[in-house]
Amino acid sequence: MTTLNADPSELAKFGELAHRWWDTESEFKPLHQINPLRLDWIDQQARLIGKRVVDIGCGGGILSDSMARRGANVLGIDLATKALKVAQLHALEAQTPNIEYREVAAEVLAAEAPGQFDVVTCMEMLEHVPEPASVVRACSALVKPGGWVFFSTINRNARAFLFAIVGAEHVLKMLPKGTHEYARFIRPSELAQWCRDADLDLQATRGMEYNPLTQRYWLSGDTSVNYLLACRKGT
């Protein structure tokens, strides 16, 4: 029997908040705010229209839904049952085209459907699993040669601790306390190495910044806190 690469306490944490995924003023407000930035950046690199996409760790489907509306054929996967049900219900209510959701681990889907996707996205998820490198390998297995894989996560340094935990969870209360665990943050160099080991070629890196006074997010060259990686599978 294969042990799932998931932390039950992390799944429970997001499961308890599932009904609030699509409330843009809830704990998920930051995800709604950054989603247009993520979506545009992914679309610029990979040209989503007509592409087959798998969104790993899709949660309530915020990114999955927006990629489907850009013309991609999207499969969203997660192991948080309640969040997936919310995603499915939202897709029905909003009549989102070309989208489906499944409760399945990335590693299991990779064994089942290797090389079946043009684009793989794995956003804000690696810092919540016990073995992030295993997820990176699964992403590589799922994507076609020449296809795109996108990650976003949080750097591990003093500034990231200050901004992502002290600032976001305790001072500004943008996120519930305990959302993130500092020890699970991932340096860009570590993620880049896992990508290389999995035959993924790093194409671009972007940082994501936030101004609490204007409540505005933007992409930049500063990867010291939140950052995104774009990779392509070797051909």
From TrEMBL:
Gene Ontology MF term list: 2-polyprenyl-6-hydroxyphenol methylase activity; 3-demethylubiquinol 3-O-methyltransferase activity; polyprenyldihydroxybenzoate methyltransferase activity
Top-level class of the enzyme under EC nomenclature: transferase
Single GO BP term: methylation
Pfam families (UniProt xref): Methyltransf_23 (PF13489)
Assigned EC number: 2.1.1.222, 2.1.1.64
Family matches, as CDD domains: AdoMet_MTases
Pathway: Cofactor biosynthesis; ubiquinone biosynthesis
Keyword tags: Methyltransferase, S-adenosyl-L-methionine, Transferase, Ubiquinone biosynthesis
Binding site for S-adenosyl-L-methionine: 38, 57, 78, 123
Catalytic activity, reaction form: a 3-(all-trans-polyprenyl)benzene-1,2-diol + S-adenosyl-L-methionine = a 2-methoxy-6-(all-trans-polyprenyl)phenol + S-adenosyl-L-homocysteine + H(+); a 3-demethylubiquinol + S-adenosyl-L-methionine = a ubiquinol + S-adenosyl-L-homocysteine + H(+)
UniProt xrefs under NCBIfam families: UbiG (TIGR01983)
Functional summary from the UniProt entry: O-methyltransferase that catalyzes the 2 O-methylation steps in the ubiquinone biosynthetic pathway.
Similarity comment text for this entry: Belongs to the methyltransferase superfamily. UbiG/COQ3 family.
Name used for this protein in its record: Ubiquinone biosynthesis O-methyltransferase
Organism field: Piscinibacter terrae
Gene this chain is encoded by: ubiG
